[in-house]
Fold this sequence. Notes:
The protein is α/β, with parallel strands linked by helices. The chain has helices spanning about 5-10, 10-45, 70-80, 105-110, 145-150, 150-165, 185-190, 190-210, 255-265, 290-300, 335-345, and strands at about 60-65, 85-95, 115-120, 170-175, 215-220, 235-245, 275-280, 305-310. The longest helix is centred in the first third of the chain and has 35 residues, at about 10-45.
Amino acid sequence: MTSTKNIIKPLLPVFYIGLLLLSFPLFDAAFTSVLSYLRVAAGRIGTSVGVVPKNNAIMLGIYKPEVPYSMTRVDSLENMLGGKFDIFSFYQTWGEREEDNFQLDLMRAIDRHGAIALITWEPWITEFARNKKPGIQNNRTDLQEVADGVYDDYVRSWARDAVVFGKPFYLRFAHEMNNPQYPWSAAAKEKPGEFIDAWRHVWKLFKDEGAKNVLWVWSPKGTMAHELYPGGEYVDWVGTGVFNYGSYGEEVWQSFEYIYEPIYRSALRYEKPIMIAEIGCSPLGGNQAQWFADALKGLQTRYHETDAIVFYNNPADQTLAGSVIDWSVDKNAEILDMLKREVEYGIFKKN
């Protein structure tokens, strides 16, 4: 009679293989977790403090919808200007989609190009699964939920990837918090304390994760919204947008000085570097090239504390209801010649 031991012995290899297969997901998850931890730990060691070297020149930046996803056209533009852009601007929303994650490959592409990224990080929260339910308002933001830590896992993951990247970049979080167009603005207007709490909470999560390479850009619309300022400890740069809509809609032509003077004066009180994070002039209603000539002259002679300017080169902006505005500067030869001169020996010339 065959013993039980003799029956079981040949089956042991099958048993162990089956056990190994069943355990693989656990080992795989553990390995992935350890690998992720090591990447972040290495990033913390190699992360540069978020300080951008200063020189006498104003930093020159651009937003083009295809950048940094494709660099071909910006390469051509830089060749025309005879110099490199210092800043590439792009926009990201919050959420659980792949495009809502920290874009490490894009950031490395910008770094290889010799530029610094400016990310406008918009806290829309409708792309989180918990908010995809009947009766939940589309395009909403709940600043109190942000401050209470509801989205901490997402923010921490984003911050850890920022640590892995390790190089300085600008983070323009919840921009134009006083612009009714954005839901975080409506919430901020009703309860300014919620906006400040949300900002400080997100800032602290980045600090806890070791993301010391992030330069925080507080960027209201128009003159500074002092009641929404998170405090000097939580802000590295003060940003703003300068747009002349010309004769679009019910708008009227406005000079650069008319728009920027009160913004600039109110920004000086914070004693922070000042960035024009978006600048554009409509081609309708006046002389676009002359408007930019006046702007560049003003930066040279009057607005000396402006440290960076980012051209909003969007050919199909639809933020003004009922209008599609072409803010492009690279279609105007006169403007390009003007920028080339400034790159060669003007306000954008590097030491």
